[in-house]
Every structure is written in structure tokens, then in C-alpha cells.
């Protein structure tokens, strides 16, 4: 491991375990439905969303199903996955989930695995479960060889940290959704609170050339998400000084907050729950929030 400081925390983050191999491989469970017996094979790859919430995924007749139910670790119970109708499934297969087409599957595996999609198709035998180094930095073979060489000048590695904020938002938005994607998909109301790049760009403080407002200004992708509101105060004060702007940058700096300078995100980045959900998403549209306002 050439970069232990970055790679070790990533191994234990929610991103690294978005998809994992089943330790016991495939297993077969027999279910009786009316007068027929159905053999349901669990997929050797299980997908689960972030924040440590395990997910259930199955394969019926070689077709991967998009999960219908999710395991809520905080509540230690099963519930319907957000976005699925709460109706009685007509068949046993329908109770497990919806089949993913060959066109849909890459959209899941493209973000929840490394090298899981090649030429628009899922390559389950070659993928690396979860988000590893090469998912963001690209192939590392030439980079490793160059670093071992005593006269190597080129690093042969891609560094997202060098991107401008607008390019970085598009880069992260490849999985977290860009403004263009959200508009094309027609995702409206609170359902789009999950798409951080899109929401971030709606704020008055968004500046595509100011690194203080970029994704990496607040988030280290090599580490677990810091959920302490106070952690982000210094990020906010980089633009909004206590009395006067503290940054020496000639870029835009916002006025100081007249209410306080601690736990800024509690007021200016509220959390919203999706209908039928059991957890909340932080809204990245940074703004002055009024107590009686609806979701913008």
C-alpha cells in the first residue's frame, strides 16, 4: 500500500462497502407460492446504500433485481425502500424487487464498484467491490511504476483535487448527480435533496472559480463523513468572517452572520427526510432558511 494515510480510512468508510461479495457465494432458498415452488438465488454481490445501511438484493433466473426492502440498521428492522410503492406485490418475485435491464444495471454498478462497467455493460467477474482508489484516480499501474522509477517525471495519475469547483462538481456529480442530470430526469421537490452538487450550485455563494465552495473544501473523500456540525465552522468562516472576511482571497467573501458563528450548518444547511424514509439528508443549498418556508 503506497498511500496508507489515504487508503486505510477509505477501506472502512461507507463508500468502500457499497457493494460487497457474499462470503459464502450463492445460496438457494426455496419458497412455496400457491402450488408452485420457486428457487430464488441471492446475488453474490450485495448492494447497500451509504451510512452503513445494509441492503438486500436478489437474482431470479439470472436477472438482478433492484431491492424492494432495505434493512434499517438504526431501527433493526426491514422496511420498503424509498421510492417503491407500498402496495401488495402480485408475485413472489415482485416482492423481492424490480428487474434491472441491461441498460439500468450499469448505472448502479458504475458508482458502487470500481471497474464494474466496461463499454456500457456490467463485468461482475472483473470489478472491485466498493469505491477504491482507481474509481476516482484512474488506473494506477503506470503511476506505481513511475513512482518506483528513480527518474520518473510524470506521475501518470489523475488528481480530482486539481479541478476547478465547477469541474469538480461535475466529477463528483457523475454519481451524486449534476444539475443537468437532475433537470433531465425531472426530479423535483424534496426528492432532489440527495443530489449535493445540484443543490450546492443553487446557492448565492456558489462560485465556479472559488475553491472555498468546492466539494473538497468540506469533504475528504478518503475519510468517513464527519457528522459533527462544529467541524464545518472553519469552512464557513473561510468566507464569512466573524466581523470581517478572514480570507485574503480577492474572490467573493460573504458578510458575517449576525446570529452566531458556531454550528453554522444547523441553520444554513437544514436536513430533510424523504417521504417514507427513516433518515435525513443535509441540504447543500446554503442559504438563510426561514422557519416557515417550504422546501425550495
Please give a structural write-up.
With 296 residues, this protein is α+β, with helices and mostly antiparallel strands. The chain has two domains: 4-129, no CATH class; 164-282, no CATH class. Helices cover 24% and strands 18% of the residues. It is built from eleven helices and 15 strands. It has helices at residues 4-11, 92-96, 105-112, 133-137, 141-148, 165-176, 179-185, 196-200, 215-218, 233-237, 264-268, and strands at residues 19-21, 28-33, 36-42, 45-47, 58-60, 63-67, 69-72, 77-80, 97-99, 113-114, 117-118, 121-122, 128-129, 271-273, 280-282. A five-stranded antiparallel β-sheet has the order 2-3-5-6-9. A hairpin with a 2-residue loop joins strand 5 (58-60) and strand 6 (63-67). The longest helix has 12 residues, at 165-176. It is flat, with a radius of gyration of 22 Å. The model is unreliable at 27-56 and 245-250 (pLDDT under 50).
Q: What is the overall shape?
A: flat
Helix content: 10-25%
Instruction: State the distance separating the first and last CA atoms.
Output: 45 Å
The mean pLDDT is 78
β-sheet strand percentage: 15-25%
Helical segment count: 11
- According to DSSP, the number of beta strands is 15
Class inferred from helices and paired strands: alpha+beta
Q: Nearest-angstrom radius of gyration?
A: 22 Å
Strand and helix order:
HEEEEEEEEHEHEEEEHHHHHHHHEE
Q: Major β-sheet, in short? A: 5 strands, antiparallel
> Order of strands across the widest beta sheet?
2-3-5-6-9
- Poorly predicted runs of 5 or more residues: 27-56, 245-250
Integer tally of domains: 2
